[in-house]
Structure formats: structure tokens, C-alpha cells
Amino acid sequence: MATDYQPIACGFYDELEAIATRKQQVYLQYFNDLRQLCQGSVVFKTFFVRDHVEYAQLTSGEEVRLDHIIRVGDLAAPGFDDYPDFRSGC
């Protein structure tokens, strides 16, 4: 599903970089390119730009568009403040 990239807020990007710098494992909730909800524990490896779109590369090798991120840990991405957190309490 190709959509126009929507740049993320600078403060949110700074939070992502701080998490990556600490090599901290965090809960990530995001939409994949098919607009399917994905979630799990991840570690950010690096950030890069391809075709004017910003991505996070995870240590698993997976690439996630930054504007598709819904939540990182307890931090909701701007624009997703009211989106439910689907983490299991178990």
C-alpha cells in the first residue's frame, strides 16, 4: 500500500533515536505496508531515508516506515494518541 510519506514530529524522532542509542528492547506497534497492525518487542538498529521516506531498521532486519509507527513502549506517536494499546496484560 503506497501512501505519501508524512514526516514525523522532531520530538518523536528524537525519542526514537534515544531508544536506538541505548539499544533498548521496546514494544513497537505499527502498520505494515498492507496496513495490517503489527506489534512486538524490537530493538532499533538504525534510521535511514529511501525515496524521501524515513525508515527504522530493526535488529531483525525488518524495515518500518516512521510514519506508520503507532506506539513505542508507552509513548504514542503523534496523531495516534487515541489509538488503543493492544498489548496483552499477561
Quick tags:
mainly beta; 1 helix; 90 residues
Fold and architecture overview:
- With 90 residues, this protein is mainly beta.
- It has one domain (10-76): SH3 type barrels (Roll), CATH 2.30.30.
- Helix content is 13%, strand content 38%.
- The protein contains 1 helix and 7 strands.
- The protein has a 4-stranded antiparallel β-sheet with strand order 2-1-6-7, with no helix packed on it. Strands 3-4-5 form a 3-stranded antiparallel β-sheet, with helices on one face.
- The longest helix is centred in the first third of the chain and has 12 residues, at 10-21.
- The relative contact order is 0.24.
The CATH C-level name is Mainly Beta
Stretches with pLDDT under 50, minimum 5 residues = none
Side by side, the strands of the main sheet go: 2-1-6-7
What's the helical proportion of residues?
A: 10-25%
CATH structural fold name: SH3 type barrels
Number of strands: 7
- In CATH terms, what is the architecture? Roll
User: pLDDT average, as an integer?
Assistant: 92
Structural class: mainly beta
How much of the sequence lies in strands comes to: 35-45%
| Overall structural domain count | 1
Sheet with most strands: 4 strands, antiparallel
